[in-house]
């Protein structure tokens, strides 16, 4: 799950303020279809807002939250947790949950993951996400609380950045583990990456590599490292180990490292020392537990030395296949042969819970976005035919998951979720894509993985409050029979050869393959591995599976007759580190079930939600770059304020700014409404001097000058399209701009002289401009190391013209077209980008060739420009300068810019001119102050060909995003 925060007090404030002026767009997860009707449940601790058809899930979640709230707060001292607004999203199939601070709310996706551990999704969300609410509430004290009077909810949001993400998520995972029987801290799959690095790799990743990532080699995420560090710290040094860190942040947010100094005071710890201590403890524990493992035969792959995952390996007609993913490439279905690997299909956004394998058919699920609504997406069931080397889509715009194909290639079974989040097994005919029959579990358990046993019977994995069970479903009679369970140890990935059922189970503290004899019910472990194996597939008395190592999942095979089996009764249930006492799970809370009162939630009553403000100063960072922020703040700082509003459904964002400058009052309201199909944006700038446009300057101020008024109305419609390989979109927009400016009807050529009196000069009043534009893009997916897409294009076209005509307004007309294409470079992760721009009119929206800042009057009649860029990575140094900076990647971009234009010379004649530049940009992707999001300081050397001169400049880019 995620908590959406900012890191570093000063950096955070600057980022927050800059985003404030960009249409008050705080974290906005997107909107749902307008037709959605909402209900709400109100308690003293929360208001739960949910789509009406999700009432059963909402009741279940409300009970889970009410039952666990007291236990969740119990070890955090005295804090005041204010009532919280929680939104349930029901149109999204990608399971998730997050807490935001401005505006403060919790959002959860009701769709349960198919590979969830043995705990209900509602219970998991209640424990994990509410812990984030408690964490942030603990910051609302002392000096930080005082910031709320000047910044609103942004005050806590800025200081929350001092809490490293590994702590925020690690503490939440520790809480979910401690207060349940099945939290991720009890899951071997959750720790296998760290375990493999500690036991198999000769060198431990540095703290920076572990927390901030690396392009050199794979490191687990901050959830996994964070849990180990938090659990070790609380178990070893006491449950209050982080209290002083919170107090330091509350009372001394302007200190450089309040979290660090709190750890030092509590236990003489630094973050790096805690990282190493916790891993030393785990490494010793795992080494003491290490047992002899069986060496299974490799299925020879071609990326043995790199971190590459081969998941779901299988065989058809003695041909080996797998789903391959890596740093260097996108996810693919590949065939593994002796001399090469053949890419059969580039898979889209792969949910990754299960694939179906028949005689010649392979099926999997992908996620596809809705064309308009950001909070609506679908699962797509795709079927690949090996005989035809082609694919087709079986189900579109659905909530179907976990496909399994029968041995005849005629039937496919899918797990389906309806709008109430109730699941069923749906069986379709592959030939005509028609539903044949549907089955619900008799006790309404959540259905998960499944496989065909024979032409009639299926094995189905299900989940309820007791844990996971494996059932046999007779598809002729609809009878359900228990095969295995229930168990709070995780079960996943079923496969059957008709006589036995194979599955992944975690009883012994590692993921291993177990089997059940379907006649005798004898259950045995058939693999022995300390790190983890998964994805069993059987054929011709052989077992294929993936074995995890610090180099990723590698496909293995073994003859079933030769494996050393261990009866399940002879295996002791594993006791996990940091959780020696299980009694706290039973005593933490006593679950109660109640029926909460439900009432309608009327959207129109809650459009305004003022969450933050900036007082008593106003400044505008809209056009400010990182290299000049301090100067621009000083220059633009004026008495005033800014009020910021965003409703909890994220349909309306507004801001109202006021400032006083040079004897004038200025008001800047902005409104953006996204609750209907087109997006409507209205922004105004009211106040200051009215602009006067003349061909030559005046020596007087005309009478009747009123305050300046600029009003912009925009209607746009972003549309998204995606396939397995491409992400694409198109956005048409119409803009209308009104300004009450004055335009002289005279010019020097017409006999106008500055000495003319006001009575001798006429003015056109007010301008009304129309701007119609459209943008489009289509890109192939990128691997994590790619700087640009390998293939793609983007385009933009705009036409601006005045609504009423006069000689001067004709100068306002402008046409602009920009097209860019992306092509693969000479080597992997190299990219060639070519951009062409054409403009007619005086707006000069095309950027000058790099290195040029101004050419002549810089008012071109029309201009054309071509830019060629070749970008490539140079080094992945992973160099750390303590807590100051961590340099992760250096990349280069060579460029050539060519531009021609028409311009007036001093005599008023029009002539054509050319300017060109070439040069090199060096970017240094760096994490400063261990801030999670990197910034890229870039040095640009430009050689100005026409002037035989050069220019050196510096700029900074960032991929800062509120979404973690």
Structural notes for this entry:
It is a single chain. With 964 residues, the chain is an alpha+beta fold. Helices cover 17% and strands 42% of the residues. The strands form eight sheets. It has a 20-stranded mixed sheet that branches. A seven-stranded mixed sheet has the order 1-5-6-4-3-2-33. Strands 12, 13, 14, 15 and 16 form a five-stranded antiparallel sheet that branches. The longest helix has 19 residues, at 55-73. The termini are close together. The model is unreliable at 1-25, 621-632 and 747-758 (pLDDT under 50).
Features:
single chain, alpha+beta, 20-stranded mixed beta sheet, seven-stranded mixed beta sheet, 53 strands
Strand content: 35-45%
Helix proportion = 10-25%
- Counting DSSP H or I runs of 4 or more residues, the number of helices is 14
Rg for CA atoms = 31 Å
Coarse shape:
globular
CA(first)-CA(last) distance: 9 Å
* Sheet having the most strands: 20 strands, mixed
Give the beta-strand count. Answer: 53
Structural class: alpha+beta
The averaged pLDDT comes out at: 87
Low-confidence stretches: 1-25, 621-632, 747-758
